[in-house]
Amino acid sequence: MYFEIDEYKNRVAATREQMARDNLDLLMLYGQEAVCWLSGFYTHGHFAYICLGLPREGEPFLILRKMEEQAADATTWVESRYIYNDHEDPIEFTRRAVVDAGFDKSRIGIDKHSWYLTLERFERLSAALPDATFVGEGRMMEKLRIIKSPAELALLRVAGRSVDSAMQAAICTTEPDTSERQIASAMASARILAGSDLPIDGVLTTGPRTLQGHGPWTDRVIRAGEPFYYEFHGIRSHYWARSLRSGVLGTASARQRELADLLIRSQDAAIALMKPGMDAREVDSACREPILAAGVQDRETYRRRIGYCLGMNFRPTPGEMILEFTPDANFKLAPGMVFLMLVMAEGVGIGDTVAVTENGVEFLTRLPRVFFDDTERARLVADVAAHANHAK
Fold this sequence. Notes:
The protein has helices at residues 5-21, 32-39, 69-75, 90-101, 119-128, 140-144, 150-173, 180-193, 254-272, 280-293, 374-391, and strands at residues 26-29, 51-55, 61-65, 80-84, 107-110, 133-136, 178-179, 202-206, 221-222, 227-236, 239-248, 307-309, 338-345, 348-356, 361-363. It is α+β, with helices and mostly antiparallel strands. Strand 3 (61-65), helix 3 (69-75) and strand 4 (80-84) form a beta-alpha-beta unit.
């Protein structure tokens, strides 16, 4: 398991309190984050049918593919398991589990928004349990995950340090006539050695590709005078931290300096407001309004999020995104919330992962908040070399 058993007991207790408020007898979960957060269970093979059942009272149960039995032994505290072979019907095993637990005529909450609860599966499950009442659980599990425990924050700090190492390696490797693939190799190696887990991907674009927003590395070779744009993540035990930096191989143009100064200054102003009780719209406005006033973005169309919450996460989503900073944001900040704050324009961008504390924020990613032209790159290379010599 990734945590001590008391961590899971606290999560189960909080979930059951919400189940009581929502009048749910049983919770059936298919989302990978929800299953892992409550039970600890994890496998790369989550594409196969997996279901976690949590009664409001009584023992939870898992429905698993036979091949994942050893993964369950290694990762979860849940002992009651219904194991199906590949030639067997997992829906029938699920029906049996619900009947055995005495909930086949009960009110059952289910995560209808899960990637893994397909329409076909839900229809077959409903047909197999015709006397049960299935209701959406209202994203209960996502809301319960918003506030991070001290144990979760400890993992996020490791994730932050690993993405810092990845970003340092990528920027230090970015030299004229270097391929994006070489830069990606340096990034991936650094973050693995710094403690990061799978998956190893991210945004790595150079030259004209920096305008793509989301682009993987390619065989392209970066030339002198060209820009670069990197957004990477570090992961520790499925907890993600992310960082965004951009720069140019050479001297920054007047436009690049203007954009970088505006974006960093605007984001700094927003992050300075991130204290417990602060209205999210005020934070959003502190960052968004200077960018709009400068004419860099259009007010009618510039409504994309400039921050979203991070924590335990699995692909295909890049973050929790339960809470987002937008012009219509409707929440207040609280200690334990963790966000990626990011802004970008015309291939220039800045982003860091921060945790809300009792007194403000803690930066979980700590690379210099600058646009990396040749001067800043040289400074970073020298700093990395100095730390390496000191470590010896």
